Amino acid sequence: MTNQATYGTSEHRTGLWLGELVHFYDKAVKAGHTVDVVSPAGGEVPLDPRSLGRLFVDRTVRGYLDDQAFMDALKATPSVADTDPDDYSTIFFTGGHGTMWDFPDSADLQRTAQAIYADGGIVSSVCHGACALINLRDTDGNPLVRNRTVTGFATVEERLAGVKSRVPFLLEDELRAKGAKYVRSTVPMTPHAVRDGRLITGQNPVSTKAVSDLILAALAGTEQQPS
């Protein structure tokens, strides 16, 4: 999860899109998995104010908002540098626009994700979490997303969100520039998730449940379709 609380140096607030964490976390824990919540720098993970709006806080999100221990943990996360990739089968990059500033060039995120993938694990993301994929490399030194089918927050969705002028780059363009086969849903802001082997991605906040289902199916060694 991101540590970035604003759009760059501006006063406009952003951070983690809470539902993207909560919906994955809830599904993974209920499926019997242990989930560790970490961030690039460690410490507090800011919450995107928009993600706390009435339209986005469903019963599941509300339950975690009311869980004081869970919310306190977001104020004191471990740094990804302090994690051992050998302990994990999957890395899941949550979104929120803050990731556009601290995910792409984080050497610790790259080291961890690349090690997990090289050891046969899953690299996954939702929405702007795909910013972490831009500079990942495979064991041959090539972009991990090259010739791979992926998705992430679309340019049309940046326009609809009213923040296209605030972002430092367009995620869709950056993924394509690395050789990815970028795909998106026909209708913006609707669920869309894709799996290409051990690389699993979701397009936008409402895709979190679908991408989580694909991740859990991959962990279970099945071909279950997202619900």
TrEMBL record:
Domain of life where this protein originates: Bacteria
DJ-1/PfpI domain span: 20-210
InterPro entries: Class_I_gatase-like (IPR029062), DJ-1/PfpI (IPR002818), Prot/Nucl_acid_deglycase (IPR050325)
Keywords: Glutamine amidotransferase, Lyase, Stress response
A Pfam short name: DJ-1_PfpI
Family: Belongs to the peptidase C56 family. HSP31-like subfamily.
UniProt protein name: Type 1 glutamine amidotransferase domain-containing protein
Organism listed in the record: Streptomyces lanatus
